[in-house]
Amino acid sequence: MGLLSANQPISSYIIQTQEEEIKRIALELHEGVGQNLYSLYTGLQFIEAGTGQPQLKSYIQEMARLMERTIQEIRLLSVELHPPSLSSLGLLPAIKSYTKLFTSTFGILVEIESKGDERPIAEQSNIAVFRVCQEALANAAKYADTSRISLQFSWDQAEVNIVLKDFGKGFDYDESSPSQSSGLAAMKERMLLAGGTCAISSKIGEGTTIEISLPLRGDSGDQRRAIVDKNSAC
């Protein structure tokens, strides 16, 4: 534990630097690549409308559908890299926005429930919690073989608790694949660096549960009102 504490400032700095670069890439994907793909998509629709050859028309339609799926994937990737609503609206609206794209991409319904009043979270902690939720959802899409995920938020004066359950096939933690194990370890470490905890439990045939807890420290009344105002605008 002492070693982690000694390395914590360095680890936090590395994560912050990575997040700044990720934010830049996300903006370029959304404003550059995404917009260019959309222009190509509308061009294909225009060509389709102008052709009278059934075989060519069918081919163009197929290309347009592929382009549309690619645009959707680029949008999800951009939000995965850096959700714009996280800074402007807060954690809960950002998660809701992300899960809409997640559902449309993977066909997995995410049921979100929130108890208590959302409270403001420091930016770096906000990003940490979002990243852990994001990784948990990605793992569920990749490994769980599920059609439904439950995501529950509980807010009080002292902390926020989040429980994600995927209702999937579950797994043996000790025998999980190296890539899955490293992802789970990264989730725990990220929350530890943010001052919180991340507990993971799974049982074969009963799914996997991720429990996240983050202490909330010294937030002012003005900040709390800002969160309420932002959520009212959603």
Please list the strands of the largest sheet in the order they lie side by side. 1-2-3-5-4
Summarize model confidence as the mean pLDDT. 81
Q: How large is the share of residues in beta strands?
A: 15-25%
Classified in CATH, the superfamily of the largest domain is Histidine kinase-like ATPase, C-terminal domain
Which term fits the overall shape? globular
Low-pLDDT stretches: 1-6, 219-234
* CATH domain class of the largest domain: Alpha Beta
C-alpha end-to-end distance = 41 Å
Strand-and-helix sequence, N→C?
A: HHHHEHEEHEEH
Q: Structural class of the helix and strand makeup?
A: alpha+beta
Query: Got a strand count?
Result: 5
Amount of helix: 55-70%
Classify the fold: give the CATH topology of the largest domain: Heat Shock Protein 90
> Largest sheet at a glance?
5 strands, mixed
Number of domains: 2
* Overall radius of gyration: 20 Å
> What's the total helix number?
7
Architecture (CATH level 2) name of the largest domain: 2-Layer Sandwich
